[in-house]
Amino acid sequence: MNLRQIEAFRTVMIAGSVTGAAEALAISQPAVSRLIADLEYSLGFDLFDRRRGHALQPTEEADALFQEVDKAFVSLDHLMRAGRDIQSLRRGYLRVVGPPFVSNGLLTEAAAAFLDSFPDVSVSIEARPHNEVVEMIALRQQDVGVAVLPVKHPAINVQRLADYRAVCVVAEGGPLAAQRSIRLELLESEALISATTGTQIHLMTEHAFRKRGIRPRIRVNARTQEAACYMVAQGKGVAILSEPLPAHIRDYPGTVIKPIAPALPVSLGILTSNLRVPSRRVREFVNAVRAIGARV
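Now predict its structure.
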């Protein structure tokens, strides 16, 4: 018994004749008859009543076999459709992760663009500290990550995304809003809305202050860019954030974005596992991240 014989049997049952089956399969009538005969020999019983002068009639055994065969072909058709869906990215699940300032901006915008093209793919976005982002990609708990460089890990492939810079968020109408750029020395007398302790942005700004002998007065630790901007707009201090900034942060009411001089560079990279070949889904999402990152 082989698949070609089963296919011929199923087609005869559906078409109702050897002639119809031959047309559907694009083979000759004798070829169909031979396949059916070989199948009957393998099974050890007749599938059709071939009495001369009568239309081809399925036996009781043929009806029972057809029910099972049709179930199998329906399942096979389902598998074929699933394969086509996966190949065309109409189905699937994608897990992405980054630090909060990336997850709430760059990754969210990339996911929205990705889903415009592949609406049936589900995407989860997690915000985690830098070390957890690296660990989750290394352990293949996430498919794509974005993190502040450098990242060095034998299980991680790192693609440089872009070089950005930190910026200062000040209150609209305040004295610092009139400055073309903000020197860190100007912030020594200001209350600082700081990123969460231990994040890469917090460590970077802390290092920059220490290098200049500046002791900032940290008034609030803000876990998100939205929280930092809200505090700035309420006159509670100034904040240092990192680009790329999403539009709703760049245009946050009551705040003004100012460059920092000298610049505080921030390099971002795209992280994927080195332990498996990236799927097409992963490659397409990485392309979406690159496209969004290039706009800043």
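The domain at 3-87 is CATH 1.10.10.10 (Arc Repressor Mutant, subunit A).
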